[in-house]
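Technical note accompanying the year-one report. For the benefit of new consortium partners, we illustrate the data format agreed upon in the data management plan: each record pairs a sequence with a structure-token string. No post-processing was applied to the example shown here.
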Amino acid sequence: MLHRALSEHFPGDWRCQALNISGLCETWRAEGPQGARLFIKTLPQARAAVLDAEADGLRALAAARALRVPAVAGVFLHEGTAVLALEWLDLKPLGDAGGAAFGAALAALHTAEAPARYGWSRGNWLGATPQDNAWTAGDGLADWLGFLATRRLRPLAQGLDAALVDAVERLIARLPALFDDGHVPRPSLIHGDLWSGNWGALADGTPVVFDPAVSVSDAEAELAMMELFGAPPPAFWPAYRAAAPLHGGYVRRRPVYQLVHLLNHARLFGGGYARQALAVAQRLIQ
């Protein structure tokens, strides 16, 4: 079926090999005429919006002209299946040598022109979890704290253990104290799910990112996620700070932004992530 779908959208004969590298969708390597190659994701048509949102995020990142992403070749439906076709990139681990280039590129993304408010033009998915990106009214600190509370922390805590929900609500009440050092987040386009499994490098060392959950948010939220599941090479940090200096209070706020992803993992996987999320929330409200 998939080879027929590709032939209808990209002329020529295509061969598809299952990759089985994702727990969220089916993945394929497709080879076509004259050495053409594509990376394919498929889902049932009922979940087509997931792939539409991924394509939207990749296009937004590409438009910022800061970080290399796989180009979107097409997103379409075929016989009850949603298909996302991406440029095939031969990737390798980023490695220490690529850290400085990655830091400079991510800083360029975070300082690129973005809408002067927080959110995004559509919802998307953080892993398998729907992410509400409804725009705020403005870009002041109160607007950001409202977005963080109502679009991230509270929805992700909903339905979890009562003690964790209570701790998150108490943290939301305390958020202003964590920004009392004068940090007012500049609205920045962020990848949104930038853990070590979502970055790599081309053969020449060019950093590449993929699988986004974009929004216009605080760039600190991006950096905190990068330090939660894996870490960028050491050379990343001096290069990033040279182009986008970090506010001194970042270390205090980092656990708040990491809590967003721990709550998401608690929703998806439960167990140890729920306990870890509760421990982080309790430390923040002490």
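Partners are asked to follow this layout when depositing records. DSSP finds nine helices and eleven strands in the chain.
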